[in-house]
Amino acid sequence: MKANTKSMTFAIGVVLAGIMMISAGSLYLENNQVIAQETPSSTDERIISVTGTATTSVEPDMLVITFGVETQEVTARQALDTNSQTMNEIIDAIQLTEIVADEISTSRFNIHPVYEGYEDEITKRWKQELIGYRVTNTITVETINLDLAADIIDSAVIAGANRVDNVSFTLSPEKHLQLKDELIEQAIMNAKTKAENALAPLDYSITGVKAISLSEFGMFPPPIPMFDMAFEESFAMKSAPTPIFSSDQDVSTTANVVFTIGSN
Fold first, then answer.
1. The domain defined by 40-60+172-221+248-264 carries CATH number 3.30.110.170
2. Sign of the dihedral defined by the CA atoms of residues 240, 171, 88, 109, in that order
């Protein structure tokens, strides 16, 4: 009888302990729910994302011309010597047009073998035979004297240049930075105006800025005349001066701005 009484007492104790644990767990969950309700959720934040643009037409202040010499000889040494001699004559010629050494830089130089393919009469297999070496030396002229474009090209071709790869009018680093700062400010103000116009009918207004993302500064040059790379020996002496004209170019940038908003 005493054993049964002890068993019943132990069982009652276990049940009471379980009830207390459940009550405590309920209280803990309930408190957590209250805390969660009292903590504002970040998803309740209202935002609007707008992309602003700014574009202007600007006159370029820098001329960039890339041209060079391509020579081929039986040996690499011969090809290099011929190329170097011609390139020195070209540099001397363009410096007579008021271009200084600091405005000239090497943009590409390479030497590579030239092979000619043929079919072997006996084996009928396709083979390649080394027939020489080709040297390509390309230089770039960057100057603020835009009016020298035609003179530089004509002088280089007359002196032996047989490649004219690029002629472009662009912005100097100083003007680039100045214009970029101005356009970024205009693009952000344009984004703000767009956001305000979109929110006005909804009775909302801007309360702050959450994020700003800027695009790369872009310039869209006008078409530039293309040049024939295969010059005849007497072409430069017989042809008329090369007409090259600069023109204003459109420059633009964009700014994506995320605004926080609230009701009025």
1. yes
2. negative
